[in-house]
Amino acid sequence: GRSLDDFSNHTKKAIMPAKGGSKGKKVVKTAAKSASKPAKDENAGLFSANKRSFGIGGDIPGKRDLGRFVKWPKYVRLQRQKAVLYKRLKVPPSIAQFTNTLDKTTAAELFRIMDKYRPEDKKTKVQRLKDTAANKVEGKVDKKAGPRPVVVKYGINHITALIEKKKAQLVVIAHDVDPIEVVIFLPALCRKMDIPYCIVKSKSRLGTVVHKKTATAVAITDVRKEDQAAFNKLREAIKHNFNDRFTEVNRKWGGGIMGAKTVHKVKMYAKAKAKELAARQG
Prior knowledge:
Blueprint: H1 4-15, H2 21-36, H3 74-88, E1 90-91, H4 93-96, H5 104-115, H6 122-138, E2 153-154, H7 156-164, E3 170-174, H8 186-192, E4 197-200, H9 203-209, E5 217-220, H10 228-243, H11 246-249, E6 254-255, H12 260-281
Parallel strand pairs: 3-4
Antiparallel strand pairs: 1-6, 2-5, 3-5
């Protein structure tokens, strides 16, 4: 005869798992998991980089150029449309010649010489006039007063007058004057008067020479003795590139450059036409 306590102990042993059995199973599981994971690189940093997913529900997209999606100001749109039209439409030679500008090396030499002959700025002029007035009141004789300083001339009317009187030795014209009618006659006038001229980039760069925001054209009337040799060499190079090539340049039309889509379509049409012709002949 067994007692009730013996029966309960027997059932507990049957139901309860053996001691250490669960621990053994856990060890096997962790070993299996660790075997599936790749071994960590010893040189790797503290934090590992996770690959970003930009799909639905993923992270925000990476940085990219959103220029095409911007609503640009009207003046930006107009100047871009104008540039595109200049490429697409046929441009007459008298306007197209302004795309042929002076090369970088010669332009650098030209601006180096012009920087030596910059006119006085507003502050310097005011101070000079004050000093002159003060000296006049005091009755002093201004010893510095003499011939006018040699400086670069600017202003389209002034330059036109200098060319007509043949006082200008070199005329420099900006390539991006708007409206172009302001300077369109200058190359022909310079050629007629046999005065070397050149077209440079740009009106803002010319403006810095004469202390202005922009300048349509500038003229050099005279240079000092120390710069005479370099200036004569520069004039010869400019005359060869612009004055001597005037007739050749004025026969070439500009523009007529189609966009990428149009070029592709024309190419496809030509290909289809050639295929059809070959099929007829074959």
